[in-house]
Hints:
Layout: H1 2-24, H2 47-52, H3 69-77, H4 81-91, E1 95-108, E2 111-117, E3 124-129, E4 145-155, E5 159-168
Parallel strand pairs: 3-5
Antiparallel strand pairs: 1-2, 1-4, 2-3, 4-5
Amino acid sequence: xxxxxxxxxxxxxxxxxxxxxxxxxxxxxxxxxxxxxxxxxxxxxxxxxxxxxxxxxxxxxxxxxxxxxxxxxxxxxxxxxxxxxxxxxxxxxxxxxxxxxxxxxxxxxxxxxxxxxxxxxxxxxxxxxxxxxxxxxxxxxxxxxxxxxxxxxxxxxxxxxxxxxxxxxxxxxx
Length: 174
């Protein structure tokens, strides 16, 4: 008799799996499938010449916010600790423009990191940029005021890291 119960349980489980599993693996319909666009090669080049050229990189879309570091860190800390990471993630990738003071400049490979004082607070601001973007710091002294525009990569009360930075440094840096 117990053998019959086990067979019934296994049969019921099989029917349940048969009803639940297939919908999980169904492909969802794409509302707007991508359409192919024909691109003609310029008349003075062969199709192979245009095919071998690298695709130009798309420009980085700038979702700029006009908030200070203090306003952002206050917004993060205004919610319970369990929710802070979600609020922090909302700021990652946003572009900001802040005025600050130079602390130091160092280079690792193709990335130059400019360290500065966090505006309106205590802590360190790290600004990653290309060497060309940092040319103005060649003669700048610690404490020099400058403006940085960059994309938030990491942010907390006492530390922030911006990437893809651009700088405005006063001409008279003596």
